[in-house]
Design brief:
The complex is a heterodimer of chains A (287) and B (339).
Chain A lengths: L1 H31 L6 H18 L4 H24 L7 H23 L13 E4 L2 E4 H23 L1 H11 L1 H6 L4 H23 L10 H15 L4 H21 L5 H15 L11
Antiparallel strand pairs in A: 1-2
Chain B lengths: L1 H24 L3 H26 L7 H19 L3 H23 L4 H21 L1 H4 L5 E2 L15 H24 L1 H11 L1 H6 L4 H27 L1 E2 L6 H14 L6 H15 L8 H14 L3 H37 L1
Antiparallel strand pairs in B: 1-2
Helix pairs in contact in B: 1-7, 2-7, 2-8, 2-10, 2-11, 2-12, 3-4, 3-5, 3-10, 4-10, 7-8, 8-10, 11-12, 11-14
Classes of the chains: A mainly alpha (287), B mainly alpha (339).
């Protein structure tokens, strides 16, 4: 029972992190209409900034996370202004290559500052929670709770506030949104900021139980791509459900199939699902 | 038209002469080594150009297929004692066979769904090579791959001789690709790039043509991988990583996407640029990343694309000028007739 519960907990933890990253990616997809390959680099930069602030300045975990989210939000907005906005009329291939250029640049900068070594962010809460015969490390519970609060908050923001609705409107129809008086520049910037902040928060939450290194974003971003394909590009509930599916598949696959091949599971799942259903699990109208 | 093609052949001959003379002009063996490596990447990038440049499908698994070709040669020669050339002959076809199967699966998807799917396929290839260590030696890599065995009087035991071997394959690859892209098949690739629906309306079987382009491109990748194994003689799973695919996309883009010689020029130019940034060591991506971004922003057609556009514009304006002259002469004649 306890072992099974541990896998559920693992699945929820991984799923929460993946969902947060995929949410940012899916929001930006609504603006760019291309997958942003640099999103994994935002995730990585977020982890490093938190590590730097919490490690070198001894900043409180939550404060470090907040600063990191703000910094990566600014970075994401800058990249929108300097790279993606000027390329908005170029073929999709060019956006993708520019995003790859940004990814290579950010990784090289981080490596120049902090080196290629592995780092670890000290966990803010090291207690182990117990209910009856079930045990759970506090950090994992923290990740799950924080991620869920953030996801619900984001959902309320997008559905219930005017500013949030402008993002949804832009994703649905760019010209239509502009016609009813939505400023596309402002909404693009806002979307990139949110997406960057989500990536930084996900990275910071996950950092205490994971390692920090320049290439840490690669696998996460690939899995986030898998998630938004499964969940339907641009779909917010799809990103959350997809994130959970991949998280659980990985947790249970690592335990019941093989830990060495756990990273293949997400990709194999995608290949199998898309081979059977080329339109994805939750086909969206934009395709 | 006649003059143009004569000019083209002259240009090819000049390029070939430079390539043949290069080892004798190079100041050290290392430069020859770097150039030969650039040629190998050029062959792989030419393959990528078939699917990305001509057919318009951004395949991000290309390095994976190159690794399959390389590992075919590496594993067969080292673990199974197969002679180099037999293993080498299998590299291209095996990569193409797996490419055919991969193409059947992945080409049912369009645009960036296809790109992400192939990115995942590439990652699966990488992880399989890394984890399946009983077959592939895992992270240790394949060490001690034999050099290509002699063919008749030609031996390939030093860098210069392998350089010429690689050059021969590069010339062959360019020749075959020229035949492909100028054939009806090559034109159907371009038709698909321009518009799926239009191509289908012209009676092109979309799926079959795309799979053919994918298979051809993976054959080139496998061939380049086989040469890589015989030249570098050491293989690690990193060869399949996505950043090698990104490198090749950059080669194609810098040289000129959808052009015959573009990937070759791009591979050579970028290899030497990276070499000259070598003093920055691991930080050279700090320069290379922004370079890539600036390139797609301000110079998206690459070396060849920019040149042909400039030429087309010149011809057009020249044509416009002569047309205007003809028109004015006509008016003049008309005016005279009326008098």
């Amino acid at each position: 029972m306890n072992i099974f519960f541990q896998q559920v907990l693992n699945g929820l933890t991984l799923g929460s992190v993946y969902s947060l990253v995929a949410l940012g990616l899916t929001l930006v997809y609504g603006i760019l209409h291309i997958p942003n390959f640099a999103h994994g680099a935002f995730y990585m930069v977020g982890a490093y900034i938190s590590f730097y602030l919490a490690g070198s300045f001894g900043l409180n975990f939550w404060l470090a996370m907040l600063c990191s989210a703000a910094a990566v939000a600014v970075l994401a907005m800058l990249s929108e202004r300097l790279i993606f906005h000027p390329l908005r009329n170029a073929p999709a291939l060019h956006d993708m290559i520019a995003a790859i250029g940004l990814l290579l640049f950010l990784e090289a900068v981080v490596q120049a500052i902090w080196g290629a070594d592995f780092h670890r962010l000290p966990a803010p809460y090291t207690q182990i929670l117990r209910f009856a015969d079930l045990t759970a490390p506090a950090q994992r519970i923290l990740i799950i709770v924080a991620a869920f609060i953030l996801m619900i908050g984001l959902q309320i923001f997008l559905r219930r506030t005017t500013t949030g609705s402008t993002i949804v409107a832009m994703a649905q129809n760019r010209e239509g949104a502009a016609l009813v008086g939505i400023d596309p520049v402002k909404v693009s910037l806002l979307t990139f900021a949110i997406s960057g902040a989500l990536a930084a928060v996900a990275a910071t939450l996950f950092a205490p139980i994971n390692l920090i290194f320049p290439a840490m974003g690669h696998l996460v971003i690939l899995k986030a791509f898998v998630i938004i394909i499964l969940g339907g590009m641009g779909s917010i509930p799809g990103a959350i459900v997809g994130g959970m599916i991949i998280g659980f598949a990985e947790a249970f696959g690592a335990f019941y199939i093989s830990p060495a091949y756990k990273d293949i599971i997400a990709f194999a799942l995608l290949v199998i699902i898309l081979s059977l259903r080329p339109q994805g699990l939750f086909p969206s109208e934009v395709r | 038209m006649k003059l143009d093609s004569r000019l083209e052949y002259g240009l090819y001959a000049a390029l070939l002469a430079i390539a043949v003379a290069f080892p004798f002009l190079a100041s050290n063996e290392y430069q020859v080594y770097v150039m030969a490596l650039a040629f190998i990447w050029a062959i792989a990038a030419m393959g990528l150009n078939i699917i990305v440049g001509y057919t318009g499908q951004l395949n991000l698994a290309h390095a994976g297929f190159m690794a399959i070709g390389a590992y075919t040669v590496g594993l067969l020669t080292v673990d199974y004692g197969v002679p180099f050339w037999i293993a080498f002959l299998l590299a291209g076809p095996l990569a193409a066979l797996l490419g055919f199967l991969g193409g059947l699966l992945s080409l049912r998807l369009k645009t960036h769904f296809f790109s992400i799917f192939t990115l995942c396929v590439g990652y699966i290839i990488y992880l399989l090579i890394e984890k399946w260590d009983t077959l592939t030696h895992g992270t240790v890599g394949v060490i001690g791959i034999p050099a290509p065995s002699p063919i008749g009087p030609f031996t390939f035991d030093n860098t210069r001789s392998v350089y010429f071997l690689v050059l021969a394959f590069l010339v062959l690859a360019i020749f075959v690709k020229r035949r492909i892209v100028r054939s009806l098949v090559g034109r159907s690739f371009v038709a698909i790039r321009n518009s799926d629906e239009l191509a289908e309306a012209l009676g092109i079987n979309l799926m079959r043509t795309k799979v053919l382009a994918f298979t051809l491109s993976t054959f080139y990748a496998g061939l380049a991988g086989g040469l890589f194994a015989g030249f570098v003689r050491f293989l690690g799973p990193d060869l399949a990583r996505e950043y090698h695919t990104f490198d090749m996309v950059a080669f194609v883009l810098v040289g000129g996407i959808g052009t015959l010689m573009g990937p070759v020029l791009g591979a050579i130019a970028l290899t030497w640029i990276t070499q000259s940034l070598q003093f920055l060591e691991t930080y050279r991506m700090i320069v290379f990343g922004p370079l890539l971004i600036l390139l797609v922003m301000f110079w998206p057609n690459g070396i060849i694309g920019t040149y042909t556009r400039w030429q087309a514009r010149r011809r057009e304006s020249g044509g416009a000028a002569s047309a205007a002259k003809r028109k004015s002469k006509e008016l003049h004649d008309e005016a005279r007739a009326n008098v």
